[in-house]
Design a protein that fits this description.
Oligomer: single chain
Order of helices and strands: EEEEHEEHEEEHHHEEEEEHHEH
Shape: globular
Number of helices: 8
Largest sheet: 8 strands, mixed
CATH superfamily: Bira Bifunctional Protein, Domain 2
Helix content: 25-40%
Strand order of the largest sheet: 1-5-6-15-14-13-10-9
Structural class: alpha+beta
CATH topology: BirA Bifunctional Protein, domain 2
Number of domains: 1
Distance between the termini: 42 Å
Length: 302
């Protein structure tokens, strides 16, 4: 990152409102300020964007994130991620940089660009393909994400015998996509995400229902997530309001509104590309569950 001119920064781990991801946070309390706080669920996304507005053109941070959720081969409650933000760049610029970054990591750390894990083989060499979110879901399930209903998605998940724990359209669509991605070995860039599942991403000029977002898919899982960041304060306020309604409806992973962030956007944030990835990438490269690549994963006491 430093070779590309990025400045390494540190942002708060304790936040008044969590931002930058959709996840259930850990809650804590500040005795001095008499203030409820949350452990961060992203590596300073809303803070690094403030730095973009302040004139810092390229920043990154490597740090710990905390999510009060279940454990499996790809998820833990505490983990290390990297996030970067790049002013005057868009998601296509980010895709080029990230492809270069992943190839360098693979070659420098493992001495190879070819891997095999969890029934998948993937090769980082060559130019990576791009696939479309809505087209992939429709091909695999017959569901048109942009023209469907909650009941239609629910019935399809039941038909596919996919477990789900969601009472909102956003969560159900996300579950349907995760079913579809299981067969993708990658590496591929996933683009064309609906606005419904991308509350911080800029809309596509040609279709306001889709966003300028990209994810990296390998071995049936997501191992990186980036955006052309939303910098329209009016659009962002509306999306925060929609997320607030999801919270009221019982969606614990919906994003908390951050009105100070909206105020920052009113002053002005340049067009920006943001991206994040974490330890999960290395777990896939070595073919082990995420728990096995941490020195001290959280465990139940004996």
């Amino acid at each position: 990152m430093k070779d590309h001119g990025f400045l390494e920064v540190e942002t708060p781990s304790l936040e008044i409102t969590t931002g930058g991801a959709e996840a259930t946070p850990f809650k804590t309390y500040n005795e001095d300020f008499k203030l409820p706080l949350y452990l961060r669920i992203s590596i300073g996304e809303l803070w690094q964007k403030r730095l973009m507005a302040a004139g810092f053109a390229k920043t990154f941070e490597i740090g710990r994130a905390y999510r009060n959720e279940g454990s499996d081969a790809n998820h833990l409650q505490e983990f290390t991620n990297l996030e970067f933000y790049w002013a005057y760049a868009n998601y296509k610029d980010g895709m080029k940089l990230v492809e270069e970054l992943y190839k360098k990591i693979a070659q420098d750390v493992f001495g190879t660009l070819q891997f095999e894990t969890r029934g998948h083989k993937f090769d980082f060499s060559g130019k990576w393909k791009t696939i479309d979110y809505c087209e992939t879901v429709k091909k695999e399930t017959g569901i048109d994400i942009l023209n469907t209903t909650y009941d239609e998605v629910k019935n399809k998940l039941d038909e596919l015998e996919v477990k789900y724990d969601g009472t909102t359209m956003e969560r159900m669509v996300d579950t349907l996509w995760k079913y579809c991605r299981r067969k993708i070995s990658g590496p591929v860039f996933l683009t064309g995400h609906p606005k419904l599942v991308s509350p911080l991403s800029k809309s596509m000029p040609q279709n306001s229902e889709l966003t300028e977002r990209f994810q990296i898919i390998i071995a049936g899982s997501e191992v990186g997530n980036g955006f052309s960041e939303l910098n329209d304060p009016f659009d962002q306020a509306q999306r925060f309001e929609a997320q607030q309604e999801l919270l009221k409806a019982g969606d614990k992973e919906a994003m908390m509104p951050d009105l100070e962030f909206v105020e920052m956007l009113e002053y002005g944030m340049p067009p920006t590309c943001g991206f994040g990835f974490g330890e999960r990438l290395f777990a896939f490269m070595v073919g082990k569950p995420l728990r096995d690549v941490q020195l001290f994963p959280l465990m139940r006491p004996k």
